[in-house]
From TrEMBL:
Gene3D superfamilies: P-loop containing nucleotide triphosphate hydrolases. It comes from the Bacteria. This is Sulfonate transport system ATP-binding protein. The keyword Nucleotide-binding applies. Residues 10-233 form the ABC transporter domain. Its EC number is 3.6.3.-. Pfam families: ABC_tran. It comes from Geomicrobium sediminis.
């Protein structure tokens, strides 16, 4: 089931992106429903972050159109926020101010920022400097800061990539809970196949700048890693990724 009320609908048509003479995105067509959670998987360098940056309006496309709720996007996407692998917190500001950064034009921004810290379970850390937090806590602050803008689209660019396995699982639970509560549309770039199956309504694989695989995850939430359908999708995804990798190696040896 998807969160339809707050999230935006996306439609990407024939998206292409070149850096110099190298075409990184070679023609992507993708539709994402309002409130849908889509995971983007693929080999390092296949263009996942570039796709996210194009949707965020942080990168200029070479060709194609992105429609958001049927309106073409032409500049920075005000409805979207990106959460990166590195926390990007301001080290000279305390946690509360970091979260309230986007709220500071509002009179009572401290109350709003405290509520967001509560949402991510860090209400007792408001006056700390970021340097005193663990990696997982810093990512919780980064998530609260992203939520401050009440985004209708959250773009997660491998945000849990630097965390230890247990913290990562905890953060997956938090992201799922917050997505359900806030009802935004979500795109998650991840290298972790089980993370994709745990969180996404749908998984796409990007290979050589195009979508090579696209399937729904028909599992109830919260999900069990031991569920036979979970295992089946896991096997399918690894097979797809290995096949793509094999094709690329063969191509590299022939050329
Ligand atoms: N600003 C840029 N200028 C030139 N080349 C770029 C730029 N940004 C990305 N690229 C190239 O585009 C390709 C795709 O990069 P991108 O970061 O989208 O890949 P990715 O799939 O997210 O990789 P990873 O999983 O390692 O983060 C890479 O070959 C990268 O070197």
């Amino acid at each position: 089931m998807t969160n339809q009320q707050n999230g935006v609908q996306l439609r990407i048509e024939n998206m292409k992106k070149k850096f110099g003479s190298t075409e990184v995105i070679k023609g992507i067509d993708l539709q994402v429903d309002a409130g849908e959670f889509v995971a983007v998987v693929g080999k390092s360098g296949c263009g996942k972050s570039t796709l996210l940056r194009l949707i965020a309006g942080l990168e200029e496309k070479t060709e194609g159109t992105i429609y958001q709720n049927d309106a073409p996007l032409s500049k920075e996407n005000d409805d979207a926020r990106v959460m990166f692998q590195e926390d990007r917190l301001l080290p000279w500001q305390d946690v509360l101010t970091n979260v309230g950064f986007g709220l500071q034009l509002q009179n009572d921004w401290q109350t709003g920022a405290k509520q967001l810290l509560q949402e991510v379970g860090l209400e007792d850390h408001a006056s700390k400097w970021p340097s005193l937090l663990s990696g997982g806590q810093k990512q919780r602050v980064a998530l609260a800061r992203a939520l401050a803008a009440n985004p209708r689209l959250l773009l997660f660019d491998e945000p849990l990539g630097a965390l230890d396995a247990l913290t990562r699982i905890e953060m997956q639970g938090l992201i799922e809970e917050i997505w359900k509560r806030n009802q935004f549309t979500a795109l998650l770039v991840t290298h972790d196949v089980s993370e994709a199956i745990m969180l996404a309504d749908r998984i796409i694989v990007i290979s050589e700048g195009t979508i090579s695989y696209d399937r729904d995850v028909p599992l109830p939430r919260p999900r069990e890693r031991s569920h036979p359908v979970f295992k089946e999708i896991e096997r399918e995804l690894y097979a797809e990724l290995l096949e793509e990798s094999h094709k690329q190696q063969t191509f590299a040896m022939q050329s």
